[in-house]
Design brief:
The complex is a heterodimer of chains A (about 170) and B (about 425). Chain A is α+β, with helices and mostly antiparallel strands and about 170 residues long. Chain A is built from six helices and three strands, in the order αβββααααα. The chains are: A alpha+beta (about 170), B alpha/beta (about 425).
């Protein structure tokens, strides 16, 4: 018995899953951010090397805890933003990630959204304590909110699980 | 079928994946291996004996009826029930839907359904649908190994209870319930409560004697015992009334509309026969390979957890292990590239953010559920297959863990 739907990846996803580009922690990153949560089943870390004068991304790396689509989406995004200005990188949408991967299946759109959320969080982090450029919105964008919502959801669920566990332990204690 | 990803070039994906030099298929949970003899029985039925519609009055119809009758007798014999008590469906999912929704449709007074927390979705979802229609659904909690709480169940049986549905063997974590005790407990309190057993994972793999258990309804599925896909059945004890839930049949006696898949049922019966005739040998072999897999993985790979009980209280074929800090779907793809086919209870495979409800019900944490891998041994596997699987796992787990921002023993990188 199975309750699943067919889900075939584009070969590009499989290729990037096999040989991810720009994988790994960057020790001397100028900006970094983590989005998602291990409890939600997907989490992405982004590391950026930024040219201070031109505000362009000279290098980008990632780490991912997630499915093959999540890994491929993060990897392809590091490729898309390399050499771009922070403003240009900020404009990249999850749809561009999907296109670059030959079209993500609908149920995997959230992988692209989380990758964008992680990148935008890293860019925002870079400007912390610095003057905020005009193109950087003060409010969180939907992609960033997606990451926040995922993180909040898991907090609620974890608290609920801990509460149930607590009740159970009390029940077990004579 | 509604296909979700029509734009995907699956042929290109398969070409890019390539055919691994060695392949071991361990995903019998989601379907797979078929006895060659069952396939042969199907081919024979398609060629002759199974061409007609078994309800039609001409020679071809009667030939099909004869094939169907003979298959029904074989399957009923293995279940220790009467052949006339079997209703053929095209899957275990359909049988579960018929049992639950069909029973509710045929009764109007009792409005409470009791299922366990770890049932298959083809039990859970029909119950939830009935809840929307005004029924009350109570779920029985399970312990950390998946055993249902009998005391809780006993306390829930009342004159409003229509049905208790519990799988004798859990499909994900292999827990073997004490079904006789459970059925007795229910019937002692109120003989009017129907007991349904989703027996798809129990049939031919554990003791399932419907004569002794006293259950009223039991679902079985062909592909779970290495018969073809497209055949399932529901045992309906004489005296239990059900209403059909799909329409299109003339006969009021027929509970499932549509022509019986006679060739598939012939293959199903052949699989039953093989499982019966070789029972001791098959089950001992599967159990041995199951234990080799479990100890081989948990002894050599760090941060692993066995989900479900061990020993005789576990189904002979079931292996379910959580690999911490290792996302399950990514691991299934990595293992696939090595030719080992397994499935995962991670949210990424089920396409929703919630991971397996079975693993959450046994109090596994979210991250533990996301890193779970389900495998089933079969009579087709050899010790050498399992050795190959065991040599493939460490590198695969190590690679997936190496991609993650979380490293063992430490906190977050960032």
């Amino acid at each position: 018995m199975s309750s699943r739907i067919p889900l075939a990846y584009n070969p590009k996803v499989l290729e990037l899953f096999r040989n991810p580009k720009n994988l790994g922690k960057m020790e001397d990153a100028d900006a970094e951010a983590l989005a998602g949560s291990i409890a939600c089943g997907d989490m992405i870390a982004f590391y950026l090397k930024i040219d201070e004068k031109t505000l362009t991304i000279s290098a980008a790396t990632f780490e991912s805890y997630g499915c093959a689509a999540n890994i491929a989406a993060s990897s392809v995004l590091t490729e898309l933003i390399k050499g771009k200005s922070l403003e240009e990188a900020w404009q990249i949408s999850w749809k561009q990630i999907s296109e670059a991967l030959g079209g993500l299946p609908a149920v995997k759109f959230h992988c692209g959204i989380l990758a964008v959320g992680a990148l935008r969080r890293a860019i925002r982090t870079y400007f912390t304590g610095k003057e905020r450029p005009d193109w950087l919105p003060e409010q969180l964008t939907p992609d960033e909110k997606h990451a926040v919502e995922e993180e909040k959801l898991i907090e609620i669920l974890t608290k609920r699980a801990e509460r149930i566990e607590g009740q159970e332990e009390r029940k077990d204690t004579p | 079928m509604k296909i979700s990803d029509l734009s995907t070039d699956v042929a290109a994906l398969l070409e890019s994946h390539g055919v691994p030099e060695r392949e071991v298929y361990l995903d019998s949970e989601n379907s797979g291996l078929v006895f060659p003899e069952a396939l042969q029985a199907m081919v024979q039925a398609y060629a002759s004996g199974g061409q007609g519609h078994p309800s039609i009055t001409h020679r071809k119809g009667w030939e099909a009826y004869e094939t169907l009758l003979s298959a029904t007798r074989t399957i009923a014999g293995a279940l220790r029930c009467q052949p006339e008590d079997l209703v053929f469906t095209h899957s275990g999912t359909e049988a579960n839907n018929l049992a639950i929704t069909g029973l509710a449709r045929a009764h109007t007074t009792r409005k409470k359904l009791i299922i366990s927390d770890i049932e298959h979705l083809s039990v859970t979802f029909p119950a939830e649908q009935l809840q929307k229609e005004g029924y009350r659904v109570v779920t029985i909690p399970v312990d950390r190994e998946g055993f249902v709480d009998h005391e809780f169940l006993a306390g829930q049986i009342d004159t409003d209870t229509l049905l208790v549905s519990v799988a004798p063997v859990n499909h994900e974590i292999g827990t073997v319930q004490d079904i006789r005790a459970m059925t007795e407990l229910v019937k002692d309190r109120d003989a009017g409560v129907a007991v349904h057993l989703d027996s798809c994972d129990a049939f031919c793999k554990t003791e399932l004697d419907l004569e002794k258990t006293g259950a009223d309804l039991a679902s079985i599925s062909s592909h779970k015992i290495y018969g073809p896909k497209g055949a399932g059945a529901l045992f309906v004890r004489d005296g239990t009334s059900l209403d059909p839930i799909i329409r299109g049949q003339l006969s009021t006696q027929k509970l499932w509309a549509g022509v019986e898949n006679v060739p598939a049922i012939a293959g199903f019966a052949k699989a039953v026969e093989l499982m019966q005739n070789n029972r001791d040998q098959y089950l001992a072999g599967m159990t041995q390979l199951r234990d080799n897999l479990i100890s081989g993985i948990t002894d050599t790979i760090s941060d692993t957890l066995l989900n479900g009980p061990g020993g005789e209280r576990r189904a002979p074929d079931n292996v379910n292990i959580s690999f911490l800090n290792c996302e399950g779907e990514a691991l299934t793809v990595e293992m696939s590239l090595k030719g080992v086919y397994v499935s995962s209870g991670s949210a990424c495979t089920s396409r929703v953010l919630q991971p397996s409800h079975v693993l959450l019900a046994i109090r596994r944490r979210y991250e533990e559920a996301h890193g779970s891998i389900l495998m089933k041994t079969t009579p087709f596997h050899t010790e050498s297959d399992i050795e190959y699987v065991l040599t493939s796992f460490p590198d695969a787990v190590q690679r997936i863990r190496s991609l993650s921002p979380l490293k063992p023993g430490g906190g977050k990188h960032v």
